[in-house]
Amino acid sequence: MKFATQMEAARNNYVTEEMKVVAEKEQISEQALVKLMGEGKVIIPCNKRHKSISPNGVGAALKTKINVNLGTSRDMESLEMELEKVNSAIDMGAEAIMDLSSFGDTRKFRRMLTKSCPAMIGTVPIYDAVVYYHKPLMQITTEEWLDIVRMHAEDGVDFMTIHCGINKETAEKFKRNKRMMNIVSRGGSIIYAWMEMTGKENPFYEHFDDVLKICREHDVTLSLGDACRPGCLADGTDAAQIEELITLGELTKRAWAKDVQVMIEGPGHMPMNQIAANMEIQKTLCYGAPFYVLGPIVTDIAPGYDHITSAIGGAIAAQHGAAFLCYVTPAEHLRLPDVNDVKEGIIAVRIAAHAADIAKGLPGAADWDNEMSKARHKLDWNRMFELAIDPQKAKTYRESSQPQKEDTCSMCGNFCAVKNMNRILDGEIVSIFDE
């Protein structure tokens, strides 16, 4: 059949080639996948022009996916370094790359990604409009904002963050309810400033039907941006955040009416005890659309370690329903991440996603862990390295402190509980000090 989007195909009970790939990857039946996609609970972001993509599904009953943010800035504009980050991210298992470039030849980099990268590619058109038009913010017209969305769709990006939930009504709610950190979303702050300076409504909200038309034509997934996400613990789950989420829920239904795939972006910074409730609120207000979260970061005091603070929050969020985790690197709040920061961020978020999949009881999720346990039981070090989420780091630690006995490590030596239990259960004598 002819179909405009993956969602339209699913609603007509048609299994696309992309659905077949995802069903096999996820060990889920094609019929179950089609049903979830028709309901909007699963998405397969894949622009028709992104020919190099290896399709992945995001949403209910599927493995938690991870996204890696990167891109040039005024202070760091090397495309070569960003491409090195992309290649490293793909090698380490990232399912999505989000290009947040805010300086230089952004279109060249974006087209390079959609030409050759197998991961889902996401962008934030608001950033690019400022770069592309190269003029004062308040002089950018409504038509120009929309033209950038069209350009990104034509360039082949699979999902776009569109900050359409912060309309005039939400902005008034924000003003009445003072925050400690105000608006910390870059896109949110840009569109808020534009509305304040021009007196006009958010163009992406006012002309949402035009955005949907573009997305439907190219099968671009809408990532409905959380302009009012909390930027510190004190602002978690406040009025502005919830008001915007209500609006995003309304826009979700409008998108689904046009067969446009949707995911919802979420917090942000937030105390651990609020995370589960936020996941439930989102599922209710946004009708089960996949939730895409940045962290959440669960404490504000750890610059240089925010890959850890976000992994803690991400694991809790994914356990309670978040489908897509955006990584956070040790450089968060400090500088543009380098290649090593990207690696540290990816490893942390992969651990969080995997731990959540185990907690959710996804079929096969714990198989990897069981294989590692078998290797540890046998003291099979080479197999342990093969199974490690970061084999090279595991090898480096092992090699940096060689034990006297090859079947132990330098921490326990002859006191190794695994070795001694294996021996005593095999009927051997264990003397420890005499060996």
Description:
- By secondary structure, the protein is α/β, with parallel strands linked by helices.
- It folds into two domains: 6-360, TIM Barrel, CATH 3.20.20.540; 365-426, no CATH class.
- It is 49% helix and 9% strand.
- Strands 3-4-5-6-7-8-9-10 form an eight-stranded parallel β-barrel, surrounded by seven helices.
- Helix 4 packs parallel to helix 15 (339-359) and helix 17 packs antiparallel against helix 18.
- The longest helix is centred in the C-terminal third of the chain and has 21 residues, at 339-359.
- The protein is globular.
- The mean pLDDT is 95.
- This is Phosphomethylpyrimidine synthase.
- [4Fe-4S] cluster binds at residues 409, 412, 416.
- Zn(2+) binds at residues 269, 333.
- Catalyzes the synthesis of the hydroxymethylpyrimidine phosphate (HMP-P) moiety of thiamine from aminoimidazole ribotide (AIR) in a radical S-adenosyl-L-methionine (SAM)-dependent reaction.
- It catalyses: 5-amino-1-(5-phospho-beta-D-ribosyl)imidazole + S-adenosyl-L-methionine = 4-amino-2-methyl-5-(phosphooxymethyl)pyrimidine + CO + 5'-deoxyadenosine + formate + L-methionine + 3 H(+).
